[in-house]
Known about the structure:
Layout (H helix, E strand, L loop, with lengths): L2 E5 L5 E4 L3 E5 L17 E9 L4 E7 L3 E8 L1 E6 L4 E5 L2 E6 L4 E6 L7 E8 L9 E6 L9 E6 L7 E2 L5 E7 L4 E5 L5 E9 L2 E3 L2 E3 L4 E5 L3 E6 L3 E9 L2
Parallel strand pairs: 13-14
Antiparallel strand pairs: 1-20, 2-3, 3-4, 4-11, 5-10, 6-9, 6-11, 7-8, 7-10, 9-12, 13-15, 15-22, 16-21, 17-20, 17-22, 18-19, 18-21
Amino acid sequence: MASTVIHRADTRGHADHGWLKANHTFSFAGYHDPSRVHFGVLRVLNDDTVEGGRGFGMHPHDNMEIITIPLEGDLQHKDSMGNSEVIRHGDVQVMSAGTGILHSEINPNPDRQVKLLQIWLFPKKKNVEPRYGQMTLDLKDRHNKLQQIVSPDPDDEGLWIHQDAWFHIGKFEKGQKLTYDVRRNGNGVYAFMIDGSATIAGETLGRRDGMGITDMNAFEITADTDCEILLMDVPMN
């Protein structure tokens, strides 16, 4: 039977460290809600704002697929594999932490914030060789349609990860409608409203609201205002 769970923006966990303002859709760090630990393999959905010149020093990860989507500003990435890159709005970054990786994330601009989404998925295979990927997307390809940014297939559009998951971003004008077909039997979809409002599977979502959708093969999306939507199509077990 089809079901949905809604997480309104103002019910998320919140942490204010001065230099970092973080909103946690799922339990993370000092925020723990036993009813909001994960959605299938989607473990972390953090909505962060980092002040100029500040950031996260070198820290470890393992056995997690980490996707970073900058919404505004720049983020300097360095890691123990020797990568040193800047990611910006329009870019997407993935890290397969696998057997273990160290990395840092710093806002290189002293006078400008960086805003980003960081998403963690449990991988379908543990202890893989760590891997880094980054690409710049053509933002025109998400105008009134869904642009694929992540998939399981190295030969498909966007970047690939070690999980049967597909991520899409769409930027829609008010009144636009579309049908989303779930990519894999047994997957659910977590919809996150980056901006604006839309009706998704019969529920109205506003800015930074999220909703998990399970046991549906397809659902309708209607843009109630100009809006931007992230869809994360992920295994539920």
